[in-house]
Amino acid sequence: MQHRTVRDVMSHQVTTVRRDTPFKAVAELLAEHDISAVPVVDDTGRVLGVVSEADLLRKESGQRDPDGHTPSVWLSPSNRKRARAENADGLMSRTVFTARPEWSVVEAARMMDRHHVKRLPVVDETDHLVGIVSRSDLLRVFLRNDRAIRGEIVSEVLQHIMMIDPAAIQVQVEDGVVRMRGQLERRSMIPIVERLCRSVDGVVALHANLTFAFDDTHTDLEPPVVRGVMQPQRHHG
């Protein structure tokens, strides 16, 4: 099974800024390219940090209300420093969560979800920027058409991996939802088939109605385990 990787879905052309890029230039880049964050890199392309719209907005939120109706919001020392920043070096968040090109889209999605970020700079083994992947990039796997999903389930999962006659299993795919019906040889095969089918790129959900001819998971079929020290056999002659 060939899963799509971050390299397959990431944007290779990345808008970046340097540490000395002025505040206004950063804001203009975000607006011009319709993006909400931009990586900060050094002269070699190594990622130093990220500046987001939220970092820029701290300058506004730290200001007093011109009409005097509401006081300025309380900011932590680090955010007060960002509110006074004049360039990317003062604005950027130095804790950067990144992805690697060879990661699966699942790994990248978990990283985004774990750290509540919308995009990940993609770096090579030397931490140099090679691309950027966003939530919308990862969602592309769900644009895969139903025929391709069914084809991979039948040819790769059933025939190639599990060596199951595809005629024994009915597979239907509609809007990424997979429905399977049929009989497998052994009961232990059912969870394996279901897990592999769910991992196929583009599968939204799986509804499986699979039966089995032989229950190979019954505990009574397992050989008894003898605990303790084995006594030597005595021969009587």
CATH architecture of the largest domain: Roll
**Strand coverage percent:** 15-25%
Distance between the termini: 63 Å
Tally of alpha and pi helices: 9
Report the helical percentage. Answer: 25-40%
Main CATH class of the largest domain? Alpha Beta
Query: What's the overall average pLDDT, rounded?
Result: 86
Name the CATH superfamily classification of the largest domain. Answer: CBS-domain
Q: Which sequence of strands runs across the widest sheet?
A: 5-6-7
- The total tally of domains equals 2
- How many E-type strands? 7
Please state the overall shape, judged from the principal axes of the Cα atoms: elongated
- Sequence of secondary-structure elements: HHEEHHHHEEHHEEHE
Structural class, by secondary structure, is: alpha+beta
* Radius of gyration, in angstroms, nearest whole number: 28 Å
Biggest sheet overview: 3 strands, mixed
Low-confidence stretches: 224-231
And the CATH topology of the largest domain? CBS-domain
